[in-house]
Known about the structure:
single chain; alpha/beta; seven-stranded parallel beta sheet; six-stranded parallel beta sheet
Amino acid sequence: MSSTEDQLHVIFLPYMAPGHMMPMVDIARLFAAHGVRATIITTPMNAQRFKTTIDRDIRAGRHIALEILPFAPVTGLPEGCENLSDTPTPEMTMRLFGAINLLQPRIENLLRATRPHCVFSDVLFHWTVDIATELGIPRLAFSGSGFFNLSVALAVERYRPHDKVHSESEPFVVHSLPDKVSLTRSQLPDIVKTKTEFSEMFDKLKLAERKSYGMVVNSFGVLESAYADYYRKTLGIKAWSIGPVSLFNQEEADKVERGDTATINRDSYVNWLDSKAQNSVLYICFGSLTRFNKTQLAEVAGALEGTHCSFIWVVPRVLKTNEKDEEEEWWLPEGFVERTEESGKGMVVKGWAPQVLILEHPAIGGFLTHCGWNSILEGVTTGVPMVTWPTIADQFYNEKLVTQVLNFGVPVGNEYWKVWATEETPVIGREKINRAVNVVMNGGNEAVEMRSVAKRLSESAKKAVEDGGSSYNDLNTLIHDIKLYRQR
Length: 488
């Protein structure tokens, strides 16, 4: 390995949300494993989520470090609230956004003092493109999503097909894409349809994306190569596919500790899954940011009790109507846990689950998911067909990749992009949920075909990250490109 003075130094700046942080930490570790000196900037409570893993890398001789910035107290935020997954109300989420923005001057001063060879930042830190220009170094952008989402978003922005329909529920086709992709206006973020309080920020994000040296994407060629080409051609910037980066976690300890501390004992779920037949268990997880109301949670619980399959359900926090509300964060109908656990039908996790380890178990036959990009990839790498239930962010676009393009999933049928599931939000009834689950889990011809597609994608994903695979080669090309930029 080269000396520290000559070694390429890249600073990583992940956004403070699990879906953004986990893959970027994996990427920083990948860079370090390829001889790059990697530094991750974060805050004290976020550092606790992955410090043990980083310490193991350091003991293994990799040049990786954490730069921990104090998180200034903000009125209305409880002490230790430094991640979007910790905010139970919309008001608290907005305060946390503001608190994260206050970190900008300190991060800029740190970059000036450190003078790395490259800054690799989440797209939400759009201002890093300006400090990178000032320092004469490349800014790499990371969106946390895939090329399909980026491409659909570009096409919707450019052609505005949603302006030509007459209602929120009328389907339209997104033109110019490699495949036929159909959406409705109700599935689009508000910011796409009209000006919102976030419009100015998103304009800055898009400008910074175009000014960046390039975009790094957690994906692989076989999954969406046509959309990688579409994105590069449409935007005219460099882009590299280096995933699925979750596959870098080969040791069980890394899988268990990835993202946060598990709130379920390993032996309890492994022994339970070992008692189940192959492909007989449905895994349900809606990600760390989904907040359902009690009515919706009751419908999910009723659907699961009515299915013929067993299940593991990572329960989402219930939406709190105000900050003084002291109701239970992980609410479920009375008696549900006792009934399903006593019968052996179900297992409920309140908190954080080691998702990759669970999905890898041969008893898992389906994944009911919110369609966050990390979950999509983790389902793909483990070869599990999906039941899709998007709610926010890039999730509706991701759903279309799974259900309309690659065809290894079935939609539950949610039609409404909604950050917070208030009591006014349309409820997905248990019959709809049950119907979609049964398609994936009943072993019929459609289920067999979806499982076959998922298995082929899983094999391709693993080949992509191996020596000589498409993602392995793209990672080496990316590191080489940064070195060439340094030599200018």
